[in-house]
Amino acid sequence: MLNAKLFLVLAISSLMVSCHNNKVLFKTVPENLNVEIPEAVIQIGDILDINITSLNSQSTSIFSPTSLGKIGTIRNLEARKLDGYVVDQSGYIDIPIIGRLHVSAMSCSLLADSIKTKSKEYVLNPNVRIKVLNFRVSVLGEVNSPGSYDVINQKISLLELISKAGGLSKAADASRVMILRDFNEKVETRYIDLTTLEFINSDFYYLRQNDEIYVLPDRLSQILDYGSLRYMGWGVTASLVAILNYINS
Predict the structure, then answer these.
(1) Domain range for residue 160?
(2) Model pTM greater than 0.85?
(3) Which segments of the chain are extended strands (E)?
(4) What angle do CA 130, 132, 133 make, to 5 degrees?
(5) Can you tell me whether residue 145 is helix, strand or coil?
(6) Pairing mode, strands 186-192 and 147-150
(7) What SS3 class is residue 50?
(8) Beta-strand (E) ranges in 107-166?
(9) Which of 23, 31, 97, 137 shows the smallest number of beta carbons within 10 Å?
(10) Rounded to the nearest 5°, which phi and psi values hold at 96?
């Protein structure tokens, strides 16, 4: 009887360990994947870097009074944020000479075209470049390096963020990844299943600024009270064997 009990304990513990160590992503992978990379959409609270240039640099300096002092210097991200245009609670920014513009829900390229058209009254052949300086996403829960990540190029996929965070932990449930999306003070929640590729064609494959991702623990980790027991592996087995030996002694 004791041998049968020992065998059962070993079998269950073995299953527990194997469940933690196997993370299967993309059970089915189609041959051809065509994913369009979305452009960043401006929202309330964004800090915009708006760079208006032309062959005559003095003619464009009127749009940025401090620009002359920046010529020949390399500014880091935080310094650029101080000079950026903050989208107010009404969705507007105020640009010198051009005036007050409603920019919320516009793409960066659409806003650049609008500013380019308006600045032609003052500048010959202007060029406009716009970036969201505070494009940041966060990942929490069952990843190896949770935290917030700045995205300089304004594009990052969910898989890329998880990779930056060191990948999924052993206790992660790849089929239950929660995304919180705050767009203009409206929060949307979506659960993503990383074991299929269906989410790639959704609006949540590429992340937006301020997205928060939470990787939930698997069911076994929740049963084990989401504590240190999930990492003990064969240590649990030894404890169970000792208890059975004591009971049958």
Answers:
(1) 2-38+136-235
(2) no
(3) 47-53, 85-86, 92-95, 99-102, 127-132, 136-141, 147-150, 172-183, 186-192, 212-217
(4) 115
(5) coil
(6) unpaired
(7) strand
(8) 127-132, 136-141, 147-150
(9) 31
(10) -55, 140
Tokens 């965070």 locate to 165
Per the structure, the count of domains in the chain is: 2
Quote the tokens at residue 229: 């027991």
Longest CA–CA separation in the chain, Å: 95
Sheet holding 212-217, edge to edge: 147-150, 136-141, 212-217, 172-183, 186-192
Final residue in a domain of this structure, among 103, 132, 161: 132
Burial class (CB in 10 A: 0-12, 13-18, 19+), 93: buried
What is the tally of helices (H) and strands (E) in the chain? 7, 10
Q: Are residues 28 and 144 in the same domain?
A: yes
Each residue's pLDDT expressed in tens, for the chain with a length of 249 residues: 545 444 444 444 443 444 444 455 655 555 666 677 888 899 999 999 998 888 877 777 777 645 444 444 445 667 777 778 999 999 999 998 899 999 999 999 999 999 999 998 888 889 999 999 999 999 999 999 999 999 988 899 999 999 999 999 989 999 999 999 987 778 899 999 988 877 888 889 999 999 999 999 988 776 665 445 555 554 555 555 555 565 666
